[in-house]
Amino acid sequence: MSLALLTVFRKEVTETLRDRRSLMSSLVLGPVFGPLLMMGILSLSLERSVSRLDEAVPVIVAGSDNAPNLVQFLREQNLDVSLREGGADQVRKWLEQDGEQVALLLPGEFGEHFGAGEPARVLLFADGSNAKAGRRADRVRAVLAAYSGTIAALRLQARGISPTIAQAVVVDEVDLSTPSSRATLVLGILSYVILLVTLAGGMYLAIDATAGERERGSLEPLLTAPVPRSHLIYGKILAAATFMALALALVMVSLLVSIQRVPLEELGMSANLGPRVALAVFGGTLPFVAVGAALLTVIASFTRTYKEAQTWLSAVLLVPTLPIAVAGLLDVKANAVLMAVPSLSQHLLIQGLLRNEPLPGLYVAISVASTLALGALLTALAGRLYGREQILG
Amino acid sequence: MIRAESLAKRFGPVEAVRDVSLEAADGRITGLLGPNGAGKSTTLRMLYTVLRPDAGRAEVDGIDVALDPLAARRHLGVLPHGSGIYPQLSARENIRFYGRLHGLAGGTLERRVDGLVERLGMTDFADRRAKGFSQGQRTKVALARALVHSPRTVLLDEPTNGLDVIATRAVRKLIRDLRDQGHCVLFSSHVMQEVAALCDEIVIIDRGVVAGSGTPRQIQQEFGGETLEESFVRVLGEREGLA
Predict the structure, then answer these.
(1) Nearest CA of chain B to the CA of A287: how many Å?
(2) Which of B48, B71, B86 sits opposite A224 (nearest CB)?
(3) Which of A78, A232, B43, B126 has the most CB atoms at less than 10 Å from its CB?
(4) Please, which pLDDT band fits residue A295 given cuts at 50, 70 and 90?
(5) Which chain A residues contact residue B139 at CB under 8 A?
(6) Is ipTM over 0.90?
(7) pLDDT of the residue at A201
(8) What percent of chain B is modeled with pLDDT above 90?
(9) How many angstroms separate the Cα of A138 from the Cα of each of A79, A122, A125?
């Protein structure tokens, strides 16, 4: 590596480290807070959507004297029954006071119909617009259906008929997803986050080193230094790549910490993200840094001002995520051809690792080789662009 | 020592430089004088190798700038027009960075940097970050970094642009010192008084061609006029049809 390249590299790194604002947004906001925020939202939404089976669901029961056996059954099914006296009007009032409550009204004629073997009516009150009350009502409904089924079976047996006659079809569901693969559905978005944050980690440096340098008027004197222009831009690309690698390392650490706080196990899922997997994801994604740094630098070299570069690069940041989005829609599986597509191959690598189904070594090799090759190509292109005199703008 | 023969450069339809030949000798201050847009900066840019001439050739200390730009740059100290410095680096770091690019390192580099900080009166702000520097301070840093490798030939594009009287004097003194040490100094300006005060030789450029050259006295004699300024206006005025 040439001395000039290292000199430029050192200067770019020093400058960026001293610029607190860009350091904040490239290494702190994205890589550290990004995953924390994402995992926070994820765990919140998980907690809300999962009604916990072990939790006793409170239900108000009115007219319990009319069906003591049913009330007993409800209690056995882990419903927190509170008995009250009142008719339909009172029940409505109770629920108006507390919309999260659900209430069961057992009418006076319940015993009569029940004893006669006729359908006995009960009334379930719940505010359907309240998500919590809705989930509670579902639980009560399920318990009532179970009670109804049990009684029906007993009645058939009492009449000498096998209860199975009432079951024409039995559905046995076989769930093929493993806990890890179930979690991957939820965590499928992780590879987006990892790649985006990595790219963003070097964005400011790429802009500052090209468009910023031109805008400040420091590019022209730099070009009068007795070193090949390509070495100057290679040093800048190396510096951008270093910051991207740093962002990648930070985002992996942050993910590692924050994912522990998401209650995936309660959903019967497990994210296969321990320190070893995090390290493997880092290693598998690292070659992508070469593509990212060279790509952003090439694009930024075309722009005239810092602002223009910012606009362009924000759009370009999304380009590497396109193959991932398409792959996600089509639900593609890894194959040798797809592994030759940078960004997509990293996505597949990451997904394999998170599912605890690591890809074969050949696929990993294809991913690394193709990604580094594209990185080298873009770097060479950047070198050529810097050789042109139009670069002065 | 600079020698240029029939340099020409066009940008699309604009002929920035049509035919410029000039010589700047060692131990002399040569001024490139001309109105805005005359082609001064483009000429200098070709000499310091960031632009490639469409036609003609130029030598720096005998090195063809088109054939071996890297070698030519080693002989040149350059202050480009509106030259910027790195705001996050201190003055000293800015200069040091260029020293390293010129292959200097260690004690040699530090002695050079210290020497320039002293010589340009930068001691007060040498270790401050350049972010809030005044125009004068920035120009001093830019000059120091142009001189860090002790170049034989110095090219300055409007070095006193935007400077106050004190800073202008400092720059002029530096230019004279460089001349007295035997350097070749070529600088451009559109300010008549500046050129008159400093130059041993003057090259007047207008619309991309050399309109006149020689010592101030020769120019005055050739074009007439009581003062150099009057002669300058006559040179240009004849072309504009104003005289």
Answers:
(1) 29
(2) B48
(3) B43
(4) very high
(5) none
(6) yes
(7) 93
(8) 74
(9) 12, 15, 11
Quick check: B70 and A227 CB within 8 A? yes
CATH number of B2-84+152-240: 3.40.50.300
Position A267 scores a pLDDT of 59
- The predicted-structure confidence for A327-367, as pLDDT tens digits, reads as follows 777 777 888 888 999 989 998 898 888 878 888 999 999 99
Which chain B positions have a beta carbon within 8 Å of A392's beta carbon? 50-51
Asked if residue A226 and residue A363 are part of one domain, the reply reads: yes
Contacts of B142 in chain A (CB under 8 A): 221
Which pLDDT belongs to residue A270? 62
A226/B contact by beta carbon, under 8 A: yes
Which of A166, A191, A212 marks a domain boundary? Answer: A166
End residue of a domain, out of A166, A196, A223: A166
Say whether B52 and A389 touch across the interface (CB within 8 A). yes
- A131 and A187 share one domain: no
Chain A CB contacts of B81 under 8 Å are 220
Residue contact A217–B83, C-beta within 8 A: yes
